[in-house]
Amino acid sequence: MQGLGIGAFTLDWATVSSYLFSPLISPFFATVNIFFGYVLFVYVMLPIAYWGFNLYNTKTFPIFSTNLFMSNGTIYDITSIVNDQFMINMDAYSKAGKVNLSIFFALCYGLSFATITATVTHVGIFYGKEIYQRFRASRKEKPDIHTRLMKKYDDIPGRWFYSLMALSISVSLLLCTILKHEVQLPWWGLIFALGMAFIFTLPISIITATTNQAIAFLSDFKLGHYMKIPPKSMFLVQWWVRYNYILSAALDAGVAFMGVVLYFSLTMEMKSIHWWGITGEHCPLASCPTAKGVNLGTDSICPVF
């Protein structure tokens, strides 16, 4: 895939819902927010960074590519900078030079980190006061009708959660220590990841809840609370329930059904369909750099400007 996708259009539901899930289960404001964010990123920020400022010498590389590049625009040979255990060889890396990304992926990675920070900031500004008030009032509020009805069941002992957490952390630390060459994650990296998960669970839960999605584990207990299901049963069985609109469910089912039909009618018969929609890019020059003097060799179709 190359270029900016101008004029791209599809009625394939599998493609529509493949990255952002079904747009029918999200509120309208969330879908509009994603759309304008996409337009701002792809058709404003990206062209300005590429053609306007030549950010990070990005014209030396294609505007959109998943590959890694040398400073001269050729493909980076990753195997030359790793050892037989797939660990980076810093001496070889210093000799080969730094890794370069296309401007699309460079901005994607940067904005992904910005999104994480923005999540904490957004929740702190818009929900911080409410979170603090609810935390203080949690021990003083009178139980509602649902909580009173659930009192007839035995509550989940805290040791169940603590034991499960201790077991998971212990096994993970053991794997990071014994299989450190295979796992390639130091023990302190695991501790850091656990801390990050602890910090971001609440902000991300609030964001996903306001956009009509759910944190699976927590939503199950909420469902069990309103349906008067014993907490211990919820813990052991975990009711994985996902609500969806009828149309979205029908489209998802249609995609699955067609997948089965295509498997039995084509894949099992060793047949395939060839048409222009699956032959890749029809503009090979979209994968070329635009900087002056970049020569990718005689085997390349890219012109030298």
Automatic annotation (TrEMBL):
UniProt keyword annotations, A-Z: Membrane, Peptide transport, Protein transport, Transmembrane, Transmembrane helix, Transport
A matching Pfam family: OPT
Membrane topology reported for the UniProt record: Multi-pass membrane protein
Transmembrane spans: 28-53, 103-127, 160-179, 186-209, 243-266
A single GO cellular-component term on record: membrane
Protein name listed in UniProt: Uncharacterized protein
Family: Belongs to the oligopeptide OPT transporter (TC 2.A.67.1) family.
Subcellular localization, as worded in the UniProt entry: Membrane
GO BP, one annotated term: protein transport
GO MF, one annotated term: oligopeptide transmembrane transporter activity
Annotated InterPro entries: Oligpept_transpt, OPT
Top-rank taxon: Eukaryota
